[in-house]
Amino acid sequence: MTFWTSAVGTEGTYFATFAEKLDGGIMVTASHNPSDYNGMKFVREDARPISGDTGLQEMRALIESQSFPSKAAKPGIERPLDLRKKYLEHLLSYVDRSKLRKAGAPRLKVVVNAGNGGAGLIVDQIEPFLPFEFVKVTTSLTERFPTAFPTR
């Protein structure tokens, strides 16, 4: 079965893979690439990264040798997976919000710079639950990264 999420940051794919106990996850991303190119980040069960020493070289060898598995006799099932609420709850579980602001203290201003990437998507969702004033910089998602090269 294949699940797909809406646009999320890479961390959203990792969370989905772990929280839903999936066999793996793939994130299509322009991270670390010029905006005209996409890349892919792979994780295994429990959101463990697949890298050069944990399976990526084996994947490369299979692709280069065109040693693909035969097609399934029956097409798989695809369905959407919306974990936004669950992910937000997960993030908020890391902090005791009652200790983030002392009584009578002014609201702390926090600058959030998401670099026009996927992490900006969670900013508006988490803001109402935190006692901070967010100063948002480059939080809108765009594939062109008008203000900086990705992840810089």
General description of the model:
It is built from 4 helices and 6 strands. By secondary structure, the protein is an alpha/beta fold. It has a two-stranded parallel sheet. Strands 2-3 form a two-stranded antiparallel ribbon. The longest helix has 13 residues. The model has no long low-confidence stretch (mean pLDDT 82).
Strand-helix topology:
Layout: E1 2-4, H1 10-19, E2 24-29, E3 39-44, H2 52-64, E4 78-80, H3 84-92, E5 108-113, H4 120-126, E6 132-137
Parallel strand pairs: 1-4, 5-6
Antiparallel strand pairs: 2-3
Mean pLDDT: 82
Q: In percent, how helical is the residue content?
A: 25-40%
Strand content: 15-25%
Main sheet: strands, sense, barrel: 2 strands, parallel
Read across the widest sheet, the strand sequence of neighbours is: 1-4
| Euclidean distance between termini CA atoms | 35 Å
Task: Tell me briefly what this model is.
Helices cover 26% and strands 20% of the residues. By secondary structure, the chain is an alpha/beta fold. The strands form three sheets. It has a two-stranded parallel sheet with strand order 1-4.
